Fold this sequence. Notes:
By secondary structure, this protein is mainly alpha-helical. It has a single domain, classed as Rossmann fold. 52% of the residues lie in helices and 6% in strands. The protein is built from 7 helices and 3 strands, in the order βαααβαβααα. It has helices at residues 7-15, 22-29, 53-65, 75-83, 91-100, 106-114, 122-133; strands at residues 3-5, 69-71, 88-89. A 3-stranded parallel sheet has the order 1-2-3. Helix 4 (75-83) links the parallel strand 2 and strand 3 (88-89). Helix 5 packs parallel to helix 7. It is globular, with a radius of gyration of 15 Å. The two termini are 24 Å apart.
Amino acid sequence: MIAVADTSPICYLVLIGEIAPESVRDWARSLPSWVSVQDPASDVALGLEKLQSGERAAILLAESLRADLVLLDEKAARRLAADRGLRVTGVLGVLSEAASRGLVDLARAIDRLRTTNFRCSAALLKATLDRFADR
């Protein structure tokens, strides 16, 4: 699976202490050769001019790599990425997936997320918790 991430979702996961189990953090300190950190091959951002540079870069890189998933949190960036045919998720999607695998207590993680400057509607947080409760 190829996933491309803007730094925003990763930063929030770090802030709430849910970036990854210790074994994954240790692994990330010395990345294997099959993992790469890349810039997009093109800086042509037609239709993406209003986004921040990191969001533009993530979308362009996801397109150029034909990524399976792009992680973005800003609503405008998510909408534009989806309009361009990309599969999109954000920090809430990552936390939900981790919770479904038993890696994270979703309610506790969302409570910690609320202590950061992460912005989303209370309705979206509730819907995320409710969707997980139905699993």
